[in-house]
Structure formats: structure tokens, C-alpha cells
Specification:
With 238 residues, this protein is mostly helical. The chain contains eleven helices and four strands.
Length: 238
């Protein structure tokens, strides 16, 4: 969905991937999650959402999708696209994508090297997914049930709060026509993008990991240079 919106000119489109590159945003997401799901702290208003998402022309994916009522209250004229997916197929996709992030070895190393990433992103995602889908991880049947219930609950919530005239029930196989008609855009002269399968997700994660390695390298370069200097000095004066 993000790719389609970007093709239509919504260049700054928020996605979960943004938090990998901007881990300081996770502090605000954690505040918003605690306020909504755990009644800890004040709920976010237009002021806080502007601070977190004000530069974006569109938002997709979690954490944003977990806050449809709050975002609708803050931006009452915004249009909402409800992407229809079969819940069982959605869950199978999750088992091959977001649920595997916690076991990604490169990410574990990056958590060690990048202190901001470890301190902010991991706890925020853990809090988000436990708030949405519960904490049952050992029983695969119960876990599947919890995730699908959370999925259906989020869709029901969006349909309840967003007026029918401001929302589009959309399936990706419908292509450009209904989406462009709803948003008031011209239909692009190119195929509708389908980039949300598990292979595309993994490819996207690899691109993000490369950027995160560069970020970690910049953070740790002074320590590496310092260690080399000490080592060279010891070797010269030993």
C-alpha cells in the first residue's frame, strides 16, 4: 500500500520501517501505546501527533494502524483506506515477516552496537505487539487466535469511527481505479505495485539493515579509532 501511495505522489508515507531508521520516534510511540492500551499518561492530541507525524502526507502499517480513532480525531478530514485481507492469510504472512524480526541475528548484533536502537525500538515493538495481540507465545494455536482477534478488532474499530464517505474498503487486486477515484488522483500508466509479500518484506528488511549497519558504524567509529590508537601506541612503546 505504501508503494502505491508513493506512486500517487504521497512521497513522505510513514511505515513501520521509519522507526528502524529513526529510533528516537519510538519514545513517543511508546507513550502513545501506554496511554491508549494501559491508561498510563495522557492520550495524544493533535499537538503530539503533529510532532510525530506532521511531516507525513500519509501513514500506513503499525504503529499508525493501531491508532485509527485517535488519528481520525486529530485529523477529521483525512481519508482512510481499509485494505481488505483474509485474516488467515494475513497471519501466515506475519509468521514469515514481523514475527521473525525477533530472531534476526543481524538485528540482535545491531541492538548491541546501536544503543539507541536497542533501548528504544525493541521495547516499543514488544509493547505494541503485546498490547495488540496479547503475550501468549508458547501455544501456537492460542497465539494465532489472539493475533486474528486483534486484527479483526482493529478493522471493526476503524469502521466504527470513520464515516463511510471518508473510507474506502479496498483490495489490492482491484488495482488503481477505485483507489485513484477515492483520492482524486489520475490513474498512473504503470502496473499497481504488489510489494507486501514475505519475499518483498525480507528484501526491504535487508535494505534497512544495510542502512542500520552504516548508522552503527558511524556511532562506533570513535571507539574503534580509539582502540586502534591505544593498540598502536602499546605496540610502539612496548
Amino acid at each position: 500500500m505504501m508503494q502505491a501511495l508513493m506512486e500517487l505522489g504521497y512521497k513522505d508515507c510513514h511505515h513501520m520501517h521509519h522507526n528502524f531508521q529513526n529510533p528516537t520516534d519510538c519514545d513517543m510511540w511508546k507513550e502513545a501505546i501506554l496511554a491508549k492500551f494501559h491508561d498510563k499518561g495522557p492520550k495524544y492530541t493533535r499537538k503530539e501527533w503533529d510532532q510525530l507525524l506532521g511531516d507525513c502526507q500519509a501513514v500506513t502499517d503499525v504503529p499508525c494502524a493501531a491508532f485509527i480513532p485517535e488519528l481520525h480525531e486529530a485529523y477529521p478530514d483525512a481519508k482512510v483506506i481499509i485494505v481488505q485481507r483474509d485474516p488467515d492469510r494475513w497471519y501466515e504472512s506475519c509468521t514469515k515477516t514481523v514475527q521473525k524480526l525477533s530472531s534476526n541475528n543481524q538485528l540482535k548484533i545491531l541492538y548491541f552496537l546501536d544503543r539507541e536502537l536497542a533501548r528504544r525500538l525493541g521495547p516499543m515493538l514488544g509493547l505494541l505487539f503485546s498490547s495488540l495481540f496479547g503475550t501468549e507465545h508458547e501455544d501456537p494455536v492460542k497465539m494465532r487466535e489472539n493475533w486474528i482477534q486483534g486484527y479483526n478488532r482493529a478493522y471493526d474499530e476503524a469502521r466504527r469511527v470513520v464515516p463511510e464517505k471518508q473510507r474506502l474498503e479496498f483490495s489490492l487486486d482491484q488495482g488503481w481505479e477505485p483507489l485513484c477515484r477515492f483520492l482524486g488522483n489520475e490513474i498512473p500508466n504503470k502496473p499497481f505495485p504488489h510489494a507486501n509479500d514475505s519475499s518483498s518484506f525480507q528484501a526491504g528488511i535487508q535494505v534497512l539493515l544495510k542502512r542500520m549497519w552504516l548508522r552503527a558504524a558511524r556511532q562506533n567509529l570513535p571507539y574503534v579509532v580509539g582502540a586502534l590508537a591505544v593498540g598502536v601506541g602499546w605496540w610502539i612503546y612496548r
